[in-house]
Amino acid sequence: MSEQAVRKVVENYIEGTFTANTDMLKGVFHPDAIMTGYMGPDLMIANPTPFIEDVGSKPAMKESGDPYKAEITNLQVTGNIAEATVYETGFFGDGKLEDHFHLLKDANGDWKIISKCFTTL
Predict the structure, then answer these.
(1) Where are the domains of the chain?
(2) Distance between CA atoms of 9 and 89, rounded to whole angstroms?
(3) For residue 55, what pLDDT band results from cuts at 50, 70 and 90?
(4) What mean pLDDT is predicted for residues 26-33?
(5) Which Pfam families has this protein been placed in (predicted)?
(6) Which of 17, 44, 49, 53 has its Cβ near the most Cβ atoms within 10 Å?
């Protein structure tokens, strides 16, 4: 049951990114979540808000470049914590990314992303 719930959160992240559904994206992150990683050579450290705003301004499913695709390549649940890896291609047209997510079950029993570490490939 927990693995299905975690998978659903990650799938909602993917769908929200693909469709630029900012409400869906806000719903998958814990209020204290952090995002860290590299867009090319640039290190980014922030909460998810700038990412969500950027996705909302230009959907990943834009018509130019490769179509957006994302695949969960790893998912592991241990008690009230989980990790997942997502490989994305066609992000904003041409980008390739690998995301490493950490999730936890919050006080309400809902799974939320608490951290995302990413890099362009």
Answers:
(1) 2-120
(2) 19
(3) confident
(4) 98
(5) Lumazine_bd_2 (PF12893)
(6) 17
For residues 101 and 72, the answer to whether their CB atoms sit within 8 Å is no
**Nearest alpha-carbon partner for 11 in 71, 64, 79:** 71
Task: State how far the alpha carbon of 86 is from the alpha carbons of 14, 18, 57, in Å.
Answer: 9, 13, 22
The answer to whether residue 69 scores a pLDDT higher than 70 is: yes
Q: Which long-range contacts (CB under 8 A, 24 or more apart) does 42-50 make?
A: 48/113, 48/116
Residue 104's SS3 state is strand
Would you say domain 2-120 falls under CATH 3.90.1150.10? no
Radius of gyration (C-alpha) of the chain in whole angstroms:
14
Distances (CA, A) of 94 to 16, 67, 68, 77, 90: 18, 8, 9, 31, 5
Three-state SS at 50: helix
Query: E strands of 68-110, at which residues?
Result: 69-78, 81-91, 95-105
Average pLDDT of the chain, as a whole number: 92
DSSP letter, residue 17: H
